[in-house]
Amino acid sequence: MDTTQEPGAEERTGVPTFAVEAAVAALVLLMGALVLFGSRKLGSGWTSDGPGAGYFPFYIGLILCISGAGVLYQSLLGKKRNHDIFVDGEQIRRVLAVLLPAIVFVGAIQVLGMYIASAVYIAGFMIILGKYAKGKSIALALTISVVFFLMFEVWFKVPLAKGWLDPLAFLGY
């Protein structure tokens, strides 16, 4: 591992790669354990007419557990742990700037419905991240939502999520 840096360059700080590998390995191990548990409830043994419903999932879960445990061991206790920075503060802020609004958008779909939540989401992204004018952003977001409403609800007759509040109920859809 070469640690030489350019003169005047500051050292990168952030989450090391081995920590991310350990976290993902722990999730794989947990998922494998859930598959093992579920397959045992289904019957993972051999029955009179062949393998039980959980027979193959049991072995898939076992493979996931072994793989997850191996990677977890290597990432935490291995001699060749990767100490390089996986993600630094600026990179994680960029990811969170997209991820957090997307999570809020998914929740807003449940409350406001697909069309209203989409209009707010699109306008918000255009105004905050894209730095577009508010009027132009809101007009475009509303236009897109109206076009999708017409396309799905009116022309294709495919209803999308209306939300708990159903703010478009007055339209009769």
What does this structure look like?
- With 173 residues, this protein is mainly alpha-helical.
- Helices cover 64% and strands 6% of the residues.
- It contains five helices and four strands, in the order βαββαβααα.
- It has helices at 17-42, 55-77, 89-112, 114-129, 134-155; strands at 14-16, 46-47, 50-51, 85-88.
- It has a two-stranded antiparallel ribbon with strand order 1-4.
- β2 and β3 form a beta hairpin.
- α1 (17-42) packs antiparallel against α2 (55-77) and α4 (114-129) packs antiparallel against α5 (134-155).
- The protein starts with 13 loop residues before the first strand and ends in an 18-residue tail after the last helix.
Summarize the helices and strands and which ones pair or pack:
Elements: E1 14-16, H1 17-42, E2 46-47, E3 50-51, H2 55-77, E4 85-88, H3 89-112, H4 114-129, H5 134-155
Antiparallel strand pairs: 1-4, 2-3
